[in-house]
UniProtKB/TrEMBL annotation:
This is G protein-activated inward rectifier potassium channel 1. The record marks 134 as: Role in the control of polyamine-mediated channel gating and in the blocking by intracellular magnesium. Residues 155-320 form the Inward rectifier potassium channel C-terminal domain. The keyword Phosphoprotein does not apply. One of its GO terms (biological process) is regulation of monoatomic ion transmembrane transport. It comes from Nothocercus julius. One of its GO terms (molecular function) is G-protein activated inward rectifier potassium channel activity. Keywords: Ion channel, Ion transport, Membrane, Potassium, Potassium transport, Transmembrane, Transmembrane helix, Transport, Voltage-gated channel. It is found in: Membrane. It holds the Pfam family IRK_C. Residues 8-148 form the Potassium channel inwardly rectifying transmembrane domain.
Amino acid sequence: RRQRQRFVDKNGRCNVQHGNLGGESGRYLSDLFTTLVDLKWRWNLLIFLLTYTVAWLVMASMWWGIAYLRGDLQQAHDEAYSPCVANVYNFPSAFLFFIETEATIGYGHRYITERCPEGIILFLFQSLLGSIVDAFLIGCMFIKMSQPKKRAETLMFSRAAVVSQRDGKLCLMFRVGNLRNSHMVSAQIRCKLIKSRQTPEGEFLPLDQCELDVGFGTGADQLFLVSPLTICHEIDSRSPFFCLSKRSLRSEQFEIVVILEGIVETTGMTCQARTSYTEDEVLWGHRFLPVMSLEDGFFRVDYSQFHDTFEVPTPPYSVKE
């Protein structure tokens, strides 16, 4: 096997990093909500904790500042004196009052009096700011937890692709499967061939993308994925593999990216699973082992043989030859 850099890993992760964005990096802040959702969990949790901690400390300091400027801290124990916030003696008590107000606990020991207009204004500002922060951060965490990325882990692709004859035609095939009983609604499969090429004008395209026909015209790309299916690309005169033979396969360098999309039945959200096959993972003259068997009243799928293949007689020549 030749080890080289893949464009898409077997688990579907794209090996592309964006650098030297310059002024374009400001666009991430203009779409801050999506930026937070795209961050890793550890950064989301850190931002979540820091935002609430800083907001709590700042608002508690503002309540303590009002009490300090009005002189409530010195006369808080005087029963004849009417403070802005009752029973606020120091910063910890101001912090507890803010928490009771923000969390709507309302113990009743600390409360705003009617002789504190600045406190009423700060209370309104705290309520509005708290609602905005809660909606933003809690909404971000909810969207991140409900993302269907984990659903893609229960969609399987065969480790290798095979080339063999089917119905008298040379075909490139691979297998897909769904490990869950819940269906993928409107499941559709697409394939891209990524290969470097040079145009007749002399332009070099390092990662040129070419579409592989897996049944667009016949509707075979629309999958009813309740059992493992073998996806077939017929190699004909319109296929980019028209000149591919068993011998030339050893010297070729390409990557086939497979994209499976569908709607998760239980959540209604769109899910996408990806994988790729390099030229080293294409087996010439092989066919997949059957995995379906009929039991008493149902069909059984044996996933232990999902990736297994066996050799079949296949001409070593290309379709063109």
